[in-house]
Specification:
The protein has a single domain, classed as Rossmann fold, CATH 3.40.50. The longest helix has 12 residues. The strands form two sheets. Strands 1-4 form a two-stranded parallel sheet. A two-stranded parallel ribbon has the order 2-3. It has 102 residues and is α/β, with parallel strands linked by helices. α3 crosses α5. The two termini are 23 Å apart.
Length: 102
């Protein structure tokens, strides 16, 4: 099963202390590089950064360098997650942004 996630589900599950649910439900979760930037490198929450980095079931997957034709109302992480899930024909795309879901 292929599962791609945006940053919000990772952050929410981290805050609940339940990142393990992702592994229990899906085994491996793929994230694009932009999502890794958001949840690991661009956060002020060092504990979040370390906790997500330690999850070996969360794997970073590169997205091809191409122009994004997505609306400017979604951020780069969401756009890359949508692109990655499309390219990989993922079974699930985890995101919570209503604009991105459209």
């Amino acid at each position: 099963m292929k599962v791609v996630s945006n940053s919000s589900p990772l952050i929410i599950l981290y805050k609940c202390g339940r990142l393990d649910l992702l592994q229990q439900l899906f085994g491996v979760v793929l994230i694009p590089e932009a999502v890794q930037q958001e949840v690991v490198h661009n956060t002020k929450d060092r504990q979040q950064s370390e906790a997500i980095s330690r999850c070996d079931f969360i794997q970073i997957h590169p997205t091809p360098a191409q122009s994004f034709t997505f609306s400017h109302r979604i951020d780069r992480g969401e756009a890359e997650a949508i692109l990655l899930s499309t390219l990989l024909k993922a079974d699930y795309l985890l995101l919570d942004d209503k604009r991105a879901q459209k």
